[in-house]
Write a structure and sequence with these properties.
64% of the residues lie in helices and 4% in strands. The chain is mainly alpha-helical. The protein has two domains: 222 residues, no CATH class; 269 residues, no CATH class. The strands form two sheets. Strands 2-4-3 form a three-stranded mixed sheet. Strands 1-5 form a two-stranded antiparallel ribbon. Helix 1 runs antiparallel to helix 3.
């Protein structure tokens, strides 16, 4: 067992920052698995954003003034400064006044955080009831912030508003999340007290009505004041790219690399398609795989069970051979999400692992049939050796890392880059020997390459690859349809996500590129002594960081 590291001055600052975040936004208490103060929301009004900005600036000064004691401190200092200063830049740009999109804005977050609340005991359900009752105030603060954007002509694109109206009305529906949960709520032991049931129903009604009022605001005030311009422009895009990647990348070089990577993925996928259907192409391979009854799953419960079994096998086998997976890390729960937006995502374990890591699948309404060849690589991406291994290993490294480093630090480029690296790693380790599963992995990799090109192309207004004008949303939909094996409802959700969340989608492939390059450089330097299992453990023990910090830490260049 590793001896616990004596906490340093920088560790203390990082811990204070975690506590500050928990005070400003109780959602962080939920993420961390804390048991107190879970019943409220943070202040989403303009005043709340200003309060956070003041805390960011104060903490940056403290971190910069501290002295790093060792390499662990050097990582903390470099990445905490990077993260806090980027958040300040984004705040100063006024982005919070237009922060509305289809997947990762307060419009979704106010509801989504409820999925992580404990719901076992009567006390837990009392907390849920109070959270329900506080939804109106949270949405009112958020509305005030968006209204301030109307006053400064700083609004989201109309496309994002239209989708958020649909989502909000779904939450406001009589058969939506709030009514459904309050109607079925039961403690794990005993029965629900009548008074608490009444509180849940009252809270659910208040939350539903608040979402209906929010949808009306979006429709009658925000949409008319908005615009049809999806592109955010180079300067705004570069800022968000730095935030999601955790590094400054040459956007023009990355766009050209994305085109080359996409061509390479297409060639590789077509090659495997000919293995599946001799002489055939991608379309013939898809038809053959879709027609194979052995690759079909019927119903969401069967999907969940299949995900769980595939995950459990990966944990058991990889834990014996390629990774050090501690007992705490071995439990992953595969869940069908209570939403129907089409996303697949992972939520981390609580700091003490009492809440395990969870893989969530938000299945669109009406979708009841699934194909294993399409989804196996997704399970590896979200579970082991993907997000769960990466994030849970950091959480487990309490002997070395402070709470911020274990639970809250990181970047999309680091996290999603590792998950794409993990997809390819499973091929390397022999888990994708089935041509269909390998074909599905390449389809997922092709999609990630396509969206590097799409995301940068649209937001920077680049010439289209076909030479027929400048990138726009209409071409983006057509381009994505040509490069993914998805129904139109998935394609529409995905493209709307890229249009409203600039810089996030390319971070996957950019991060994968960095992870693969760092491993190759380390292997070349070590020669025959290179131990990939030891390298993985060392890299993951760093915890979540930006890609620049990861490079410095791996190369030990401070």
């Amino acid at each position: 067992m590793t001896d616990a590291r004596i906490p340093s001055e920088l560790d203390a600052i990082a811990e204070r920052w975690v506590d500050t975040l928990c005070e400003l936004d109780p959602d962080y208490r939920v993420y961390l698995g804390r048991t107190d103060g879970l019943d409220n929301y943070g202040d989403l009004s303009p005043a709340g954003h200003e309060a956070k900005a003041e805390a960011l600036a104060r903490t940056v000064r403290d971190v910069r003034a501290a002295t790093a004691r060792d390499d662990v401190d050097r990582v903390t200092q470099a990445d905490l400064v990077r993260d806090l200063e980027l958040q300040l830049e984004i705040h100063e740009s006024g982005w919070y006044r237009r922060d509305l999109n289809v997947i990762a804005s307060p419009a979704q977050g106010i509801r989504d955080i409820l999925d992580l609340l404990p719901m076992s005991t009567v006390s837990d359900w009392e907390t849920v009831a109070r959270r329900f009752a506080n939804v109106p105030a949270a949405l009112a603060g958020y509305t005030a912030t968006l209204r301030s954007g109307i006053a400064t002509a700083d609004t989201p694109a109309r496309r994002q508003i239209a989708e958020a109206i649909v989502q909000s009305r779904r939450n406001a529906g009589p058969e939506g999340f709030f009514d459904s949960l309050s109607a079925t709520a039961e403690p794990a032991e005993g029965t629900m007290p009548d008074a608490l049931r009444a509180d849940l129903i009252r809270g659910a009604t208040a939350a539903r009505e608040a979402y209906l009022e929010f949808a009306t605001f979006l429709e009658t005030e925000l949409a008319p004041a908005s615009h049809d311009i999806d592109a955010v422009g180079r300067d705004v895009y570069a800022l968000h790219s730095r935030y999601f990647v955790g590094a400054t990348v040459d956007l023009d070089e990355t766009y050209e690399w994305g085109l080359d990577e996409l061509r390479r993925m297409v060639e590789e996928q077509e090659s495997i398609a000919r293995e599946i259907v001799p002489g055939g192409g991608v379309a013939a391979a898809v038809a053959a795989l879709d027609a194979d009854p052995a690759r079909k799953i019927h119903g969401t419960e069967a999907l969940r069970a299949w995900m769980q079994n595939l995950t459990d096998v990966a944990v058991r086998e990889l834990g014996e051979t390629h990774f050090d997976i501690t007992p705490d890390m071995r439990k992953i729960e595969c869940m069908i999400a209570p939403t129907q937006d089409g996303g697949i995502y992972y939520t981390s374990p609580s700091d003490d692992f009492s809440r395990p890591g969870r893989m969530w699948w938000s299945v669109p309404e009406g979708v009841t049939e699934f194909d294993t060849w399409r989804e196996a690589t997704t399970v590896y991406h979200e579970g082991v050796p993907g997000h769960h291994l990466q994030i849970a290993q950091a959480v487990a490294n309490s002997a070395e890392l402070n709470t911020w480093r274990r639970q809250l630090a990181g970047s999309s480029g680091h996290a999603e880059g590792w998950a794409l690296y993990a997809e390819r790693l499973m091929e390397e380790l022999g888990y994708l020997e089935d041509a269909g599963d390998r074909f599905g992995m390449l389809d997922a990799q092709r999609m990630r390459a396509a969206r590097v090109v799409l995301d940068i192309g649209v937001h920077l207004g680049k010439p289209r690859p076909d030479g027929q004008g400048i990138w726009d949303a209409a071409f983006a939909f057509d381009f994505m349809r040509d490069n993914v094996l998805m129904e139109d409802e998935f394609v529409r959700f995905e493209v709307n996500r890229y249009l409203g969340w600039p810089g996030q989608a390319p971070s996957y492939k950019i991060g994968q590129r960095m992870w693969e390059n760092l491993r190759a450089e380390s292997a070349a330097q070590a020669g025959v002594d290179f131990d990939v299992k030891a390298w993985h453990k060392r890299a993951l023990n760093i915890g979540g960081v930006g890609l620049d910090t990861l490079r410095q830490a791996i190369q030990n260049k401070w």
